[in-house]
Design a protein that fits this description.
The chain is mainly α. The chain has eleven helices and no strands.
Length: 284
């Protein structure tokens, strides 16, 4: 009976979180329909298709990591759990960022190449939704650590409340006559607020100091992002169209790979990568 009550409570609060998330997405679409009509949905539909295309790989990676995060916490091995958490957070972000960066730099050309006639606002929507997804990728492993504790009631109530702010903010922005993109800027800011709450709330539960988390996760991801995107923005100002896509795509991969190797991973992870490369050479 006690186990059944715990399982029901956990699944119920998990369902509450998913329904809240779904309600917010539908509420934003509802606000857009009221003020702009169904035509604006074409732009959001295009943006979401691009996002799903670049996010599939990251979702599969995180699915592979989740059982290890739960197992290490439940067995009381918090040291390994913290290592896995920082590694999952960084690699999830890196994978999505490597795929997304060429798309962010060449969004307009890619959409025109794909659709020919691109709906209004599609370019900006795509860039903003991908940016929001990058924040989510960084925070997703934290959510799995929270699930591993089994005590998610307070967490779900607070996170869902923060997320629900999207709906009134969306209506206020549109009522005040702000640009439609303001909704997605607000969504990114709320996503950052949710990420900060996750960090502040979850890290003490697994004895992960804020400073260690900053050094191992926040600093390398921010440093790599600023370094690569600044260089690509400078290069892209001298290019256009297909030439820009052909040059910035391999350049972004090289910059991301190099900066991740020298800034974004630790010595142990570098050794693992070198061992994998050596095995590939032997097989070849």
């Amino acid at each position: 009976k006690d186990l059944f009550i715990k399982m029901t409570s956990f699944s119920g609060w998990s369902l509450f979180g998913q329904l809240s998330r779904m309600g917010v997405n539908q509420g934003i679409d509802f606000a857009l329909n009221i003020y702009f009509g169904v035509i604006i949905n074409a732009a959001t539909g295009v943006a979401n298709q691009v996002l799903n295309a670049v996010r599939n790989l990251v979702n599969n990676f995180q699915t592979a990591f989740n059982p290890q995060l739960i197992q290490t916490y439940s067995s009381g091995n918090l040291e390994v759990h913290r290592i896995l958490l920082s590694r999952a957070s960084r690699i999830s972000y890196y994978l999505l960022y490597i795929i997304s960066l060429p798309v962010l730099i060449n969004t307009s050309y890619i959409l025109h190449l794909w659709l020919k006639k691109v709906p209004d606002h599609s370019v900006t929507f795509t860039q903003l939704i991908i940016t929001f997804s990058l924040v989510e990728a960084l925070g997703a492993p934290l959510w799995m650590s929270m699930q591993a504790t089994g005590k998610i009631k307070t967490y779900q109530i607070i996170v869902s409340s923060i997320n629900a702010l999207n709906i009134p903010i969306a209506f206020v922005c549109l009522y005040q006559g702000l640009a439609v993109e303001s909704i997605f800027y607000a969504k990114i800011l709320i996503g950052l607020l949710m990420y900060i709450f996750r960090v502040l709330y979850i890290l003490p539960l697994i004895n992960f100091s804020y400073m260690d988390y900053f050094k191992k996760v926040v600093y390398p991801t921010v440093a790599i992002t600023l370094f690569t995107i600044c260089i690509l923005l400078i290069v892209s100002t001298y290019l256009d169209g297909g030439e820009k896509l052909l040059i910035t795509t391999p350049l972004s991969i090289v910059l991301c790979a190099g900066s991740i190797y020298y800034i974004g991973i630790n010595k142990q992870e570098k050794q693992t990568i070198l061992q994998i490369i050596k095995k590939w050479k032997i097989q070849i």
